[in-house]
Design a protein that fits this description.
alpha+beta; two-stranded antiparallel sheet; two-stranded antiparallel ribbon; 4 helices; 6 strands; globular
Length: 185
């Protein structure tokens, strides 16, 4: 580690006694501040393992240009970008093959335009995230469990920028809101 995602390895084990592991586990188990719209049940899920993803190629080719574009759009509109308002931690569940592709792809990782091709997209095509790990588990979004019963999901820091209400008719670019600036999510 320490090469900003330029190591041959992309996944790094997080020691279960570390602050990082404890913070991830706390967010995983956290109850939402606002009541969930789904029936929240404690299924006794535990965080057994945490791996940090460090994929520098993906960061340089996809993430950083996206962030720069959002920040420039905010600046052009005179909007102050606020971490915690325009970004948040969220969970994403997918089957193990898709998760492996997201993590290891050297360019794109999440592919919103092809996401959900095998399932229905209530709010339009794209990559879906949940504020609660429990929702991802209960909704079956982690795919089938491994032979040992373990499921996996991704916890991601999401830059949502200015969001709009989703619509199944949204394809490609989201609607424009002000002076040619489109919604970001």
């Amino acid at each position: 580690a320490g090469r900003r995602g330029r190591d041959p390895a992309i996944l790094f084990e997080v020691i279960d006694t570390s602050d990082e592991f404890k913070h991830v586990a706390a967010v995983f188990k956290a109850e939402p501040v606002e009541a969930p719209a789904y029936r929240a049940e404690d299924h006794g899920m535990q965080v057994l393992r945490v791996q940090r993803v460090e994929n520098g190629s993906q960061q340089d080719a996809n993430f950083l240009p996206y962030c720069e574009g959002v920040l420039q759009s905010f600046a052009d509109q005179g909007i102050e970008f606020e971490a915690g308002v325009h970004t948040f931690w969220a969970f994403h569940g997918s089957d193990s093959t898709s998760t492996e592709s997201i993590v290891n792809n050297q360019v794109t990782g999440f592919q919103p335009l092809t996401a959900g091709m095998r399932t229905s997209c209530l709010w339009g095509p794209g990559t879906y995230f949940a504020r609660d790990a429990n929702y991802v588990i209960q909704g079956g979004f982690c795919g089938p469990p491994a032979s040992n019963g373990v499921r996996q999901m991704l916890m991601c820091l999401i830059m949502i920028g200015i969001p709009c209400v989703g619509d199944p008719r949204h394809h490609g670019l989201l609607p424009c809101r002000k002076g040619g600036h489109c919604y970001n999510s």
